[in-house]
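Researcher: Please generate the 3D structure of the following complex. Treat every line as part of one assembly.
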Amino acid sequence: MTGERTHTVNPEDIKKEILSKYPPKVARKRGKQITPVSSDDKEGLQVGANVRTVPGIITQRGCCYAGCKGVIMGPTRDIINLTHGPIGCGFYSWLTRRNQTRPPSDDADNYMTYCFSTDMKDEDIVFGGEKKLKAAIQEAYDIFKPKAISIFSTCPVGLIGDDVHAVAREMKEKLGINIFGFSCEGYKGVSQSAGHHIANNAIFKHVVGLNDTVMDAKFKINLLGEYNIGGDGFIIDELLHKCGIDLVSTFSGNSTVDQFANCHTADLNAVMCHRSINYVADMLETKYGIPWIKISFTGPTSTASSLRKIAAYFEDQELIDRVEEVIAEEMIPVEAKIKDVKKRCEGKTAMMFVGGSRAHHYQELFKEIGMKVLSAGYEFAHRDDYEGRHVIPDIKVDADSRNIEELTIEKDENLYSPRKTPEQMQALEEKGYPFKEYEGLLPEMTKGSLIVDDISHHETETLIAMYKPDIFCAGIKEKYAVQKHGIPMKQLHSYDTGGPYAVFKGAINFFEEIDRMLNANIWQYLEAPWQKDPELSATFVGE
Amino acid sequence: MLLRHTPKEIKERKVLSVNPAKTCQPIGAMYAGLGIHGCLPHSHGSQGCCAYHRSALTRHYREPIMAATSSFTEGASVFGGQANLLQALLTIFTTYKPDVVAVHTTCLSETIGDDVNQIVKKAYKDGTIPEGKYVVHTSTPSYVGSHVTGFSNMVKSMALQLAEKTGKSNGKVNIVPGFVEPSDMAEMKRIAAMLGIESILFPDTSGILNGPMTGKFNMYPKGGVSIEELKSIGDSIGSIGLGAWASADPVRAIDSQFKVPCQVQDLPIGLLATDRFVDALRTAAGVSVPDTINQERGQLLDVISDMQPHLYGKKVAIAGDPDQVIALTEFLVTIGMKPVHIVTGTPGKAFTKRIKEVTARFGDEINVKSPSDLFHLHQLIKNEPVDLLICNTYGKYIARDEDIPFVRHGFPILDRVGHSYFPTVGYKGGLHFLEKILGALMDRTDRDAPEERFELVE
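Model: Done. Output below.
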């Protein structure tokens, strides 16, 4: 029934309806970020992205600090992440993303449950906070004796001119542990995205390459852009291990500072979340000669093809065979689950608005159980995440993002070693091997769907009213507004309390979850009996 | 261990904050703004703050939290955020049509020194704010005080900027409820109504942050103090501010501006503080206390006396907002418990003094520290273990590591429901709170009892 309903909706009409409620200038600006997919031929479709948010529009976006501290560095378990600022930023990023950590022993470092802050006061704003920052680092060192301390700047820090990098250098010298800073003030860039870039740069500058020990393993890779939400990283690790592939590092779910230091010894980088970590992937290639490929461990088909891609890269028949065995074995319960769940989910519709990567990856999971994605978009992705990396040369960096540093990376004279000869690379590429390729979200979108970048509350409401989806996926800020409509809402940031959803095992969890949500009893009871049938008529007890 | 790095030995920290027992001002102002009917809160700063504050309130209430932001960019951060705020007001009134926008600031706009008052004046003058619509604004620098300070600042501003004294008494009593749950606000109104008093309670999030599911999302739910009510608070016969940190400033400001006599009381948590609240209402309005209230008081007294064996002498650690913690501590002492470690993250010298007063019978045996954090509280507990911990959700990490019965109270509670539906203020709230404490203590007794001491009848 839902399938029929949606065929009658024209995405151009929805766009018109959305824009009609805005002041003219806002409508013009938002028009560029709302892209109807009116036909299956998507040639020439452009998705406006990574531009400043319209003030007052009720965006779901966060800030640069959230992208840097909250997303990239937060999941590292043995670094003391010290927020330099008033208390809020540290408080709100304290245990609110579900990056799981599992240290190898009871006495191994794990600071995940802690929130460290300089808790700046008005006198620090007036007289500067550098002295306080130094003293805080000293106190943190005296009490915790950590391996490393990183400092995160918040909005006022840049304005009052505290030099966190100078403080880091001085305290590093004094204490003899690695201490480094991030200039991730909240106002930088236009979203979390700037924070990703700043985190990538600093981790590359201050940590990567510090430890040259080579792991004793045959097939060594780094997993980039996997943050172990709900345990995703754990089951990816388990699956890779089963295939005979070892992880040197994960950026950055359940990670340690030593893994970052050592990551340049891996032979391949597999990029999961393109948006947040493609910078590190590129820099590792330029400096150390490690190629990178885009993979996805969301959905059984993507997982299988990602495993095959990794195996194909190593060109080792034993590994290729092993991967096929594992896929065949893992697919059995997945197929059984799909068959079961599809009975109740086929033909239903979904929409999803998630950060910078999942709005693409999760489409496969819905398609597997016969569901259609009506509309999707990102909070803070760039055009390459929508349209594919081939548009990168056409992207103009605007004034709001121009001050995000681009590191100039050169070959490391001693450590650069191409993992494949140019001939080998060429041979692989000729066979269609996709190095450094990412097609983006656009190919997933079908005729009649709508792409919305940096969606606002008003836009969400209009989409719900016009498309009438059966399930809506986004984050905590949207969740309860959507559910008030009587539409189930799945969080794809935190997974609500669920997960893992990655690889084969996680797909099973996800299918069960969507089945439960779509078919829960509660959605039938929105109306009370007296609202359904307000006419009064006498009924005798026992009749 | 979840908090494996917390040592027993307490080293003095002068600057480093670890596991704070507070958060920053704007979230309190956002919460207060949500307590006005038809209001959209607005955060004048970079958008990360607004996203964080909405998320934290959403997780606590499991309700939609709507708020807009000026979305500062680096340019605005250097040259000022006037254009952003004017654009925001235009977008908001065109698209979302609130009756009132409640603007608060962040450390960003405060540090650069944006003059929000002047910007709002310009918006009125230019017609960006439509006829019959309002913008109230307050200054909430995150580097001063805590979320409670932000609440207080917004409440004071909404009162002073909207009230108009006509000189004709409305016969009502103003109640500023403090930074409490929607359920608590509803309970305060119920108590006033039982006394036959007409009250203006503001802000009032009951019905807004514990609203129903109807199959339709309503951006401005039923509930909240109305603009008309806020306009008339200058004509009230008296004001009662509950909780000195959250509510003293607003009621005193109303007193100086409109000559509405004010009283500042503790939050009415527990027997004695509720007694004082009822008494304050009675004297402010000149009414007598009905028997229904005596009945409720008597029920609370009855349960306390019945349950003495489970309560007497039990050691408790408490962390939270100062108004909450003061009232709670007094309640615990009243029912025979011994609060031994008490911290708040919100600064204010009066805290320690009030705690010392309500725990006077224990003298120097009580550890009280303000401002402090949960790391310190945990260390105190390691040095002197307790039988019960009362704290917001973050306390669960301490409770599990130290194996302490745990009662969630305060803000935020991210992992349970109930706080927005069942009050902890008033005699009824006292009963509910007592039930939670007893449940936690008695579940522990059952868990740990050897088989022969596992009792059917408590």
